[in-house]
Amino acid sequence: MNLPKVVIRGGRVVDRSGERTADVAIDGGRIVAVDTNLAPGSGDLVLDAAGCLVMPGFVDVHAHLRQPGKEEAETIETGARAAALGGYTCIVAMPNTTPAIDSAGVVREVLELGRDTCCDVRTSAAITVGRAGQQLTPMAELAELGVRLFTDDGSGVQDVRLMRRAMEYARGLDVTLAQHCEDEALSAGGHMNEGVVSARLGIPGQPAEAEELMVMRDIALARLTGAKVHFQHLSTAGSIAMVRAAKGGGLNVTCEATPHHFTLTDERCSGFDPVFKVNPPLRTAGDVAAVRAGLADGSIDCIATDHAPHAPEEKERPFDQAPPGMLGLETALGLALTHLDVTPGQLVGLLSSRPAAIVGVSEQHGGPVAAGRPANLCVVDPAASWAVDADALASRSRNTPFAGMKLNGQVRHTLLWGEPVVRDGEAQR
Amino acid sequence: MKHLLGIADLDASELDHLLGLTDHFVEVSRRRMPKVPALQGRTVCWLFYEDSTRTKLSFEQAAKRLSADTLNFTVSSSSVRKGESLRDTVETIEAMGVDAIVVRHGSAGVPTQVSRWVSASVVNAGDGWHEHPTQALLDCYTIREQLGSLDGTRIAIVGDIAHSRVARSDVWAFTKLGAEVTLVAPTTLLPPSLDGWPVRVDQSLDRVLPHVDVVYLLRMQQERMTEALLPTLREYTARWGLTRRRVDQLAEKAIVMHPGPMNRGVEIAADVADLPRAVVIDQVRNGVAVRMAVLYELLGAGSIVVTDPKEIRVPEVNT
Questions:
Q1: Residue of chain A minimizing CA distance to B132
Q2: Which residue, of A7, A261, A278, A311, has the fewest CB within 10 Å?
Q3: What per-residue string of b and e applies to B78-110 under the rule 16 or more CB within 10 Å gives b?
C-alpha cells in the first residue's frame, strides 16, 4: 500500500516515558521522527493535533465482536470501526461466538475477517472446547496461530481441577489464561448485583462473593502452577483487594476493569431497563470507588471495555430474560477522561501499554511514541465535550448505558500502521 | 395518575385518594344493579403471562361493573409462543385501540417496561417478586374497614418475604399510611438486604403475635424446599405457621389476612382460616372495588380536575 507520509502537528506526545510537545512524522507505517517543528514535505498529509494528546493507540483486551454467529448484533468489521473511533488500534475478540473460537478453523476465520478492517483484530480462544468446561482446547496449536490469551469468557471455568490443568499447560506455552470470575453455584439465577437495590426491586441478585470466590481460587491456582493469570472485568472491592495483595506477594497476575464498573452503580437497574444488565453486574458506589482507586494506584492493570453488542430486540425482553452486556468501545476514553483521576501518562498505561503487554502485542502497540516504532497512534482532544448519542455509534448495536451522558475527551484521529483510519472523528473506511 | 406500576412510587395522599375512591365503588357493588357506565367505550386488555385466576377474575369483574370493554390476550395461544418480543406484542395490542393494559408477568419490571413503549395506561397486576399494587390497596382498604385506620396499626407480615411481590407492595403501602410493620420469617426467606425498608424484623412469631393488630400470612411455596431455603414444611409450620394454638395469643380484635390462595395446614391452620377474625373473603370482595377505583382513576377521572376526592361522583345508572 502506498501511503502518503503523515505529519501529526502541534500535539502533546504522551507515552509511558512522559509528555512533550512535538510533531510526529510517519512514513511506511512507522514513526520516523518525533521532534518539534517538523516541516511537512509537499504531498505529505498533515493532521492537526493542536490542543490534543498524541498517544499510542489503545488496546482492548476484551471485545465481543459477535462474529461468527450473531452478525445482527455486530460484525468484526463494524466492531473494528467502533474501536478505531474509540482510539483503539488493537482489539482482542472474545471466544463466546457461535461456534465458539475453540479451534484452528474458527481462529483463522476470525483473523481473516479482521484483516482489512480499521483495527488490528486479534483473537483469544476458549480454554475448553465449546466453552463447556469439560475438555481443553488445542491450546498449543492455537498459540501457534498467534493466540496469546485463552478464556471461556461469558462464563468462568467452574471445575477447579480442570482449571489447574489449563494453567499448567498454558505455562508451558507462555500464554495467558484470562478468567471471567463467577462461581455459578452461587450466582445462579442472579440478574443484577445482590444487595439493597435488588432487594427493593425484587430482581434475583448475585452476590459479590460469587466473583470473589473464583478470584480467590484462581489466585491460589496461580500460586500452585506459576501460570500467568489475568482476571477479567473485576467489579468488587473485595476482588481488587485480593489481586492487589497477590501482586504484592509476587504472583504473576494481572487484571482489568471496565468503564461501566468505574462509572455506574446498581441503582441504574431501578427502571428495569436491561441496557443496564451486564455480567458481572453493576455494583455499589463503594465498589465503583474501589475500581477507580485500583485504576489510579495501578492495582488494576488496564481498562477493558467488555464491549458486548446485543440487537435491540434482545434488550427489549424482561430484565431477567435479556442477555447481559453493554457497548463500550466508543465511550471508554471519554469515560476515563471524565471520571478517572489519572494523568495522561497513566491513561496511556491503562488503555495502551499495559493491555498491549498482557496480550503480547507490545512490538506493534502500546508505544513508546518514538522513531522506528509502528505508527499505531491516536490523537485525542481532551477538552472536547460531547454527549453520547446511541444512534450515532458505529457499532451495529445500540445498547449503550451511557446514552445522553456528557463526556469530556474525544478521539480526533486514529492511525493504524500510519494510515489515518479515523480522521477528524470520522471513520475513513 | 397515568399508570399504576408500584406502591413505592406513590405517596400517602395518592394512596388515600385511591382508597377514598374505593368507598364509592364499594357502595356501587352493594346496589341491586352493581354497574355504572363510567368507562363505557373504554377498552381494557388483560395481558397475563402468568396463571392467575383470582386477580384476573377480580379485574374482569371490576371492568365489567364499570362498563368497560375487555380484551383478553391469552399467552398460551398467542404469538409469544412463536417468539414474538414483548415490545412487539404490546405495540400490536395498543394498535388495536386499548386504553389500558393490565399486565401480570413472572419477571420483575415488565409493567414498567411496557409503560415506556405504549401510550395506554398500564396497571401492574403482579410482576415477579417486585410489586402487586392492587393487592396492597385492597389490603389497606380491608384493614381500614376492619380496624378504622392504618395509622399506628401494628402489622406482622409472616413468611416468604424474599420472593413475595405482595410483601414488597404491602410494606410500602402499610408504612406510608402510618402502620408499624414487623417482618417475621426464617432468615433465608428475607430479602438479601433490608436497608431502607421501614420495618422491624423478628424471627419469632410467638414473640410478635401478642403485640399486633394484623397478622398477614404469605403463601409458602413448595419449591422453596428444593432451593435449600427451608429444611421441611413441617419445620416451617411448627415455627412460623399460624396454628390454632397460636391464634389465642392474638389480641381480641386482631385480624388475620392472607392474599390467597391459602395452603391450609402450612402457613395457616385449616380451622384458623375459618375463624371470624380471618378476613380473607373480605379482602377478595374489596379487591373488586379497589380495582374499579384504579381503572376509574386511570381511565375515567383523567379529564376531570378534582382537588377533593369526596367530590368525585360515580355516574348513576338510569334504570
A1: A202
A2: A311
A3: eebeeeeebbebbeebbeeebbbbbbbbebbbb
